[in-house]
Design goal:
The complex is a heterodimer of chains A (305) and B (261). A two-stranded antiparallel ribbon of chain A has the order 1-2. A two-stranded antiparallel ribbon of chain A has the order 3-4. With 305 residues, chain A is mainly alpha-helical. Chain A has one domain. Chain A is built from eleven helices and five strands, in the order E-E-H-H-H-H-H-H-E-E-H-H-H-H-H-E. In chain A, helix 1 packs antiparallel against helix 2 and helix 8 packs antiparallel against helix 9. In chain A, 51% of the residues are buried. Chain B is α+β, with helices and mostly antiparallel strands and 261 residues long. Chain B has a six-stranded mixed beta sheet. In chain B, strands 1-3-11-10 form a four-stranded antiparallel beta sheet. A three-stranded antiparallel beta sheet of chain B has the order 5-6-8, covered by helices on one side. In chain B, helix 4 packs across helix 5. The chains are: A mainly alpha (305), B alpha+beta (261). At the A-B interface, strand 1, helix 3, helix 5, helix 9 and helix 10 of A face strand 5, strand 6, helix 3, helix 4 and helix 5 of B. Strand 5 of chain A pairs antiparallel with strand 5 of chain B, so a sheet runs across the interface.
């Protein structure tokens, strides 16, 4: 009796299970400011939703989760709108370039390999760096190390033109920095088929030097718009958005995101970072095994991964 | 009785065009099986979670009955995973499969050990299907590819062989009644399916009867499908707006309950 038939996914699902999955991913989304696409899509595929429908419906769900999350963080004063909008402009430019790049690669026949390798390398690199850095932070080693390291990179950043004050984040930066990094994340996100939150967060923390709590709210703000764009594009071209599935997921995830934002406030920046780093590494290891172990079924339909 | 004959007459008239090219060599048209099906239509509403279809009829006392549910033939484009650089599994070759039905379910009277041999009539099962399916791939081992294709289909519940699905009653003269319980998966696509009753004697199919089973979305699922496929952009905007409202509402509710510091 807890089953519901989903016409776009073409299968029936357990409402309670979907709700719990939504809640869990929403919680993570609220705590870390990641969209959760890299977790939710595999979970949905596991319970029998076609990959393309899983990815598109997840984008729809993230619209709701990140609205709720952005609102919660905005009230706590944690959204840097100026930074978010510049990153978004870069992200849209990069995303468009990434989609074209994928088209060319698919034509050459090796896109899937590039996608998976990009995932493993990016997740591995980001995860290990964050993990080590936050571990040092928790142990209190870092205070001495930072000022000496900063010089090269900081001097380069300071000499870029069009310096701008970002009051919310308390930093001064060239407008080129978030724009170029936004493009970079947009390209990667398009190649990997995700919102890009889990790359955007480390980029903001380490390359833009924004404080962790502002990073989370700003990242959610930026993801909101990315996912609105993706949802409408998918609904228009591929008809893969399952609105009912997304609705159940997002009731779970919006509730989860509210709790997440509160938990996020209680945890220290380094604690947040080390948990996110572990999560990223876990997904990376899972994907690496997926590449190394012989798959259960050697055939797959074209269109999803 | 007369009602059953009527049903057969109607069904035979419909079955003609749905032939699907899956007829068995040597099988003869049904004469007196008097197969009745309930329900005759599957309605996929919001509460649909797979369906059970009941078939009743009579077969000769010394024969057995098998039932197949076969969907329309489809063209599948797939990727085959292979090893790159000796260690990494990734999509390598393209595989095109034609003339394979989108759904192929076989229901047997016997126990689980009968499944691999399709209840003593391999031709009625996957082995027979293999001969009809065309596979085009760089990989020359098309039999192995067919096995992988079946595994992929079985995982989504669209192919399958089920034991213990058919029961017989006590013989009445030359005939014995049978009752087949067909479990259909929740993942069944909308469409028209051939329900084929095969009469088996001495390891060969001696007669068969085809019925048509229609599966269609009704109610909310039907409305959503129509909206999503006919007005894609509007549907996308609608989905986004609902998500935005739901997100804002939870945000407001949570603030109302108070915990904003």
């Amino acid at each position: 009796m807890w089953h519901l038939y989903l016409p776009i996914a073409g299968n029936s699902v357990n409402i309670v299970l979907i709700f719990i999955m939504g809640g869990f991913v929403g919680l993570l989304s609220g705590i870390f400011g990641v969209g959760g696409g890299f977790l939710m899509t595999p979970l949905l595929i596991m319970i029998g939703i076609p990959p393309t429908v899983a990815a598109a419906s997840d984008s729809n769900q993230i619209v709701g989760a990140s609205t709720s999350g952005t609102l919660a963080h905005y009230r706590l004063g944690n959204v840097d709108f100026k930074m978010g909008i510049i990153l978004l402009v870069g992200g849209v430019l990069g995303g468009t370039m990434g989609v074209q790049l994928i088209k060319v690669l698919r034509h050459m026949g090796n896109a899937d390999f590039l996608i998976q390798i990009t995932y493993v390398i990016m997740l591995g690199f980001v995860g290990i760096y964050m993990f080590i850095e936050s571990l040092q932070g928790l142990r209190g080693v870092q205070t001495a190390a930072v000022p000496q390291k900063e010089s090269g990179y900081a001097r380069f950043v300071k000499h870029l033109p069009w310096q701008m004050q970002f009051e919310k984040s308390g930093i001064e930066l060239s407008i080129l920095m978030p724009l170029i990094l936004g493009v970079f994340v947009g390209v990667l996100a398009a190649i990997m088929g995700v919102g890009g939150g889990f790359i955007m967060v480390p980029v903001m923390v380490y390359l833009l030097r924004m404080p962790m709590h502002v990073v989370v709210g700003t990242s959610l703000f930026q993801i909101l718009f990315t996912c609105i764009n993706v949802t409408i594009m998918q609904a228009n071209t591929n008809h893969t958005v399952d609105f009912v599935l997304a609705l159940i997921l997002l009731i779970g995830s919006t509730l989860g995101a509210q709790f997440g934002a509160k938990i996020s406030r209680r945890l220290k920046g380094d604690q947040l970072k080390i948990i996110l780093a572990s999560l990223v590494l876990l997904v990376m290891v899972k994907m690496l095994f997926g590449l190394l172990l012989k798959p259960e079924i050697l055939l797959s339909y074209i269109g999803g991964h | 009785m007369t009602r059953n004959i009527c049903i057969i007459a109607i069904v035979c008239a419909i079955v003609g065009p749905v032939g699907l090219g899956l007829t068995l060599g040597g099988a003869q048209a049904a004469t007196n099986m008097r197969v009745a099906m309930h329900p005759e239509k599957i309605q996929m509403g919001a509460g649909y979670d797979g369906a059970q279809v009941l078939l009743t009829g009579k077969v000769p006392a010394d024969a057995r009955a098998l039932v197949r549910v076969v969907g329309p033939a489809e063209h599948s484009r797939l990727k085959e995973k292979g090893r790159a650089l000796g260690v990494l599994w990734m999509n390598m070759g393209s595989v095109e499969i034609t003339d394979a039905p989108n759904v192929f379910l076989l229901y047997l009277p016997g126990k689980g050990e009968d499944i691999p041999g399709a209840g003593g009539v391999p031709e009625a099962g996957l082995q027979g299907l293999r001969k009809q399916v065309k596979i085009v791939a760089e990989d020359a081992d098309t039999d192995a590819l067919f096995d992988e294709f079946v595994k992929l289909k079985e995982k989504s519940g669209l192919y399958g062989t089920f034991a213990d699905a058919i029961q017989y009653g006590p013989a009445e003269g030359d005939l014995k009644p049978f009752k087949a319980t067909l479990a259909l998966p929740a993942s069944l696509p909308q469409g028209s399916y051939a329900v084929q009753v095969l009469v088996v004697a001495n390891g060969a199919v001696t007669a068969s009867d085809d019925l048509v089973l229609e599966a269609h979305e009704v109610g909310l699922p039907s409305w959503i499908s129509t909206f999503a496929f006919n007005h894609g952009t509007l549907y996308g905007i609608f989905a986004v707006v609902v998500a935005l409202i739901a997100g804002l509402l939870t945000g407001i509710i949570f603030r109302g309950e108070g915990g904003a510091h």
